[in-house]
Design brief:
943 residues; Immunoglobulin-like; 26-stranded antiparallel β-barrel; 6-stranded mixed beta sheet; 49 strands; globular
Length: 943
């Protein structure tokens, strides 16, 4: 008993000693910020800096009473800096050595005027400033190693996140647009700027909520925002050129090279980027990928389709000859698998003055990709299951040229024109070989197929848009008109060779089907479209918006299939098709908008009509023709609510009914038997898909401490949903055909939150997302309802205690519960988890160490699938040469030699998993030379 009392006494003494130490070693800093008249200044930016180098230690904003407070400060010297729009920045050295509280009482800011302008220029810049929803960072206050990119700099900034694939998030929201000195940089692909521009070239990083394209056109706020990041260059990098060049060689004959060069001035920007490698760095951003696939994703938000969402955005054309999955990441492709050789280069030029904005860019990309995969799939039928294995190999060589021009001219204060033209020219070849086996009845071999296909294709696409805007003398009255012309043509030559064996229980020898065919396909699509838009203020804070959209799309597909014999080839009239189609689209609508002090509400209604006329036959010269004529019309309501709750809190609600026409590929009455065991056929009788979408969300961001909270709920229902029905015969040949069905739906939500643990030193975030979907599909004329319940949880933390060390860690856990009405015994749970960490450490003598670790796990106990994939990359590099222009780096990729492309998926009436041979462990030695900005110098007279 005495021992317990003694331990309790010691414990209480320790607590008291710790509390005393805490009190005596810490203090609170207080004060009230006012103007020269004594009026308080709420929302002023307040920072504590180190007196030695002005590094940011802590930050905040004054409250509604203009008060500032920093608690639990160490007893050391601080530089207090206060900034407020329209006032001279305030600085004061604070050094508390004995008292518990330092109260600065009233801190008076001086209003900025012309006489003080010179003083302001000479005043030390603050690490960050906050003005409304704009956060501006002083890049020089956030140290990164020499030779770092903008991406590396962004990782250091409070409130900024950079995902593993290079996606940038600011205040928890994805950055949609990055500009350099307010100008476009290689179109609107954010990664082109963040991955290629050097951090040392940046003076300021500005983050703000940009207006939507329609708001910019009409001048009326529609409540929609897109997160925008602007990089302001240093003066030294606006005069002269800067960039970097890298060359490297490694084991297993690995090599890579990369160069970028930039030359900017006040009115002009010029940039070049290029690379080549055989280390799986494809360098494709999302727009490059979309262009290559033919969806004409040029200039998001500038397609000239005015009015609320129609769900029609772009022409979609899928190339039958191009079925590989390109990686959409500029980084090393470690999860998708395969081996690739890549060459790419581009040039960008921008010019801007008060009345003219001109930008043009060209990008070239060549990728040769080898993909060897082993896939397993379990298929569910009403009366049983069957299993497939597929050992396949692909060799895809693809080349594309992409160019674009954007010209904007302000004729006068009331009239503006915009002309946009983008084009893509591509060609390639694809070789595909596969050995497939189908098993049923206790693993009895039922079917096997050996396939060897070879295809070549050429493609050309162009998108052209012209927009005219007119502002009337009456404030708020605006008119806009647009016209566009789009082309998307492809032609291909493919040979198909396969041997297919069908085993019967009662027959020893299999039935054999040999296919030896050649097909020539030519596809042409042309679209002419136009749009009108008028907005009229009809009462105080009320606006009436009216719009009209129209387009005519003409499709022509000529597909000739020939059966190849020993000496002759015979045309196959069953598989050959000549198809023409004309789709006319008209939409007229109107809405009423209320906009005042952050409350923005709109409700409207549009009438949509599709007219489809087409005909198809086996050959252009054939007399027997089948005609298709369809008409579809629908009223589509739309409602939006955006409410700015002040202090960077936003509430939003959206409801829309969208109408989406079928793709050209789905409409084509063409039989694709390139895989004879999975045959696809189009359906010219499809009608447009109707989607009702509801979304409710709340966003909160506190610029004083960089905490965030985002929440969203969404619900979608589908009418005439385009799904792919399956028909599976006794030989296990699957035939798919798109059809319309109603009754599918999905519901989901997400929650994302983040807070700083220690200001400027560490941040922690967490997220969760949940989705439930019901998908309908007919399998052998029996309706199957697949319910997928997806749950994902994750967390991330960043530690940047000083400029010598940084650590970024993340983890996510994913669960997919799949349930099948067709065969409930096949219900299953799929687990996909991932863990990652990146550490950077500065050693003496300008030596740096970097490590990146990823652990991915894949599990499906129903099929005894359990895979773990640890990937560790290590690198050490040294900075040297005059002005630290040189870098030599030694890197080890995949130290454990465990890299392999693993994926698992459950949907419709099947579950599958796949493993792909891919680039594994190798070592690389590289050298980088940094070209610094050239500072202009004035030669003095007489020297």
């Amino acid at each position: 008993m005495n021992l317990k009392k003694l331990l309790l006494s010691i414990f209480l003494l320790l607590i008291g000693w710790a509390a005393t130490a805490q009190i005596t070693g810490r203090f609170t800093l207080k004060g009230t910020v006012v103007d020269s008249a004594g009026a308080v200044l709420p929302g002023a930016t307040v920072m504590l800096l180190t007196p030695q180098d002005s590094s940011l230690l802590s930050y905040g904003r004054t409250n509604e009473q203009g008060q500032l407070e920093f608690k639990n400060l160490k007893r050391t010297a601080y530089l207090l800096k206060i900034s407020y729009v329209g006032y001279l920045p305030y600085e004061k050295l604070v050094n508390n050595q004995d008292s518990y509280v330092t109260d600065l009482d009233s801190i008076q800011l001086t209003m900025l005027n012309q006489d003080l302008f010179e003083v302001v220029i000479k005043t030390a810049r603050a690490p960050l400033s906050i003005r409304g929803d704009t956060v501006e960072y002083n890049a020089s206050s956030f140290k990164v190693p020499p030779g770092s990119t903008v991406e590396d700099l962004l990782r250091r900034l409070p409130g900024m996140q950079v995902e593993q694939d290079g996606t940038v998030k600011a205040q928890g929201q994805e950055v949609k647009r990055v500009t350099v000195d307010g100008k476009r940089f290689f179109g609107d692909d954010p990664k082109m700027a963040t991955k290629n521009l050097p951090a040392e070239a940046i003076s300021k990083v500005q983050v703000f909520n940009g207006k939507s394209e329609q708001s910019r056109i009409t001048g009326v706020d529609d409540g929609k925002q897109e997160k925008t990041l602007n990089l302001e260059l240093k003066d030294s990098h606006k005069k002269g050129g800067f960039g970097k060049a890298t060359v490297g060689g490694g084991t297993d004959n690995r090599a890579e090279g990369k160069v970028n060069y930039n030359r900017f001035s006040d009115k002009q920007q010029f940039a070049i980027v290029g690379f080549g490698n055989n280390t799986n760095q494809s360098g494709l951003g999302w727009n490059d990928y979309q262009d290559f696939r033919g969806s004409q994703s040029f200039n998001w938000g500038e397609d000239g389709d005015f009015g609320f969402s129609s769900g029609r955005n772009f022409i979609i054309i899928s190339d039958d000859n191009n079925e590989e999955n390109l990686t959409i990441s500029g980084g090393r492709d470690q999860r998708d698998g395969g081996f690739s050789k890549n060459w790419a280069g581009g040039v960008n030029y921008n010019f801007e003055d008060k009345k003219t904005k001109f930008s043009t860019n060209y990008f070239y990309n060549n990728t040769e990709r080898t993909l060897d995969a082993l896939a397993n799939r379990e298929n569910f039928l009403a009366n049983g299951t069957f299993r497939t294995t597929d050992d396949n190999s692909k060799l895809n060589v693809n080349t594309n040229h992409r160019g674009g021009i954007r010209f904007e001219k302000t004729i006068d204060s009331l009239n503006t024109i915009i002309v946009i033209s983008n084009a893509r020219l591509g060609n390639g070849s694809n070789r595909f070989s596969s050995f497939q086996q189908f098993f049923q009845d206790q693993n009895r071999l039922a079917t096997e197929s050996t396939i060897a296909n070879d295809a070549r294709f050429n493609s050309f696409a162009m998108g052209n848009t012209a927009i005219y805007r007119h502002k009337f003398a009456k404030k708020g009255r605006n008119f806009a008109a647009s016209i566009g012309y789009n082309i998307n043509n492809t032609n291909g030559d493919a040979s198909q060779l396969s041997v297919n064996k069908f085993y019967k229980k009662e027959i020893d020898q299999p039935e054999i089907l040999n296919i030896n065919q050649n097909n020539l396909t030519n596809s042409q699509t042309n679209q002419l479209k136009g749009s009108l838009y008028m907005i009229e203020p009809f009462a105080k804070r009320f606006y009436w918006e009216t719009f009209y959209n129209t387009s005519i799309r003409r499709d022509q597909v000529d597909r000739d299939v020939f059966d190849i014999g020993f000496e002759t080839s015979v045309k196959n009239n069953v598989l050959s098709r000549y198809y023409t189609n004309q789709l006319t689209y008209n939409r007229v609508g109107s809405s009423v908008r209320y906009s005042y002090k952050g409350l923005n509400f709109s409700a409207g209604l549009a009438a949509v009509r599709f007219d489809l006329r087409g005909e198809f036959k086996s050959d252009q010269s054939a007399t027997e023709t089948t005609k298709v004529e369809r008409r579809f019309q629908q009223l589509t309501p739309n409602a939006t609510l955006n409410f700015d709750l002040k202090n960077n809190k936003y509430l939003y609600f959206n409801y829309s009914m969208s109408v989406e026409e079928p793709t050209v590929r789905d409409l084509q009455p063409v039989v694709d038997n390139s895989n004879p065991l999975f045959i696809r056929e189009g359906n010219p009788g499809l009608v447009p898909q109707l989607t009702n979408s509801f979304s409710l969300g709340f966003n909160m961001f506190n610029p004083g401490n960089f905490s965030r909270l985002f929440a969203n709920l969404n619900y979608n229902t589908y009418e005439n949903q385009i799904i792919y029905n399956q028909s599976i015969d006794q030989n296990l040949i699957t035939r798919t055909k798109p059809m319309n069905i109603s009754g599918g739906n999905s519901v989901g939500g997400y929650l994302d939150a983040g807070i700083p643990l220690v200001k400027t030193k560490s941040t922690i975030g967490a997220f969760t997302s949940i989705s439930y979907s019901k998908n309908l599909q007919f399998v052998n004329d029996i309706l199957n309802e697949t319910n997928n319940n997806n749950y994902r949880f994750g967390t991330n933390i960043s530690l940047t205690p000083n400029d010598k060390f940084s650590l970024y860690a993340n983890a996510s856990w994913g669960i997919n519960n799949a349930r099948y009405s067709l065969s409930s015994s096949q219900n299953q749970k799929i687990l996909n988890n991932s863990y990652g960490a990146e550490m950077n450490y500065k050693l003496p003598s300008d030596i740096y160490f970097n490590s990146r670790f990823n652990l991915n796990t894949f599990k499906n106990s129903r099929f005894d699938f359990n895979q773990t994939q640890p990937i560790l990359n290590l690198s050490v590099y040294k900075i040297f040469l005059k002005d630290k222009k040189g870098e030599v780096r030694l890197t080890s990729y995949d130290v454990f030699n465990q890299n392999k492309g693993i994926s698992q998926f459950a949907s419709q009436n099947f579950v599958s998993n796949q493993q792909v041979r891919t680039l594994a462990r190798y070592f690389m030695l590289s050298f980088t030379y940094n070209m610094r900005g050239v500072t202009a110098k004035i030669r003095r007279e007489g020297y």
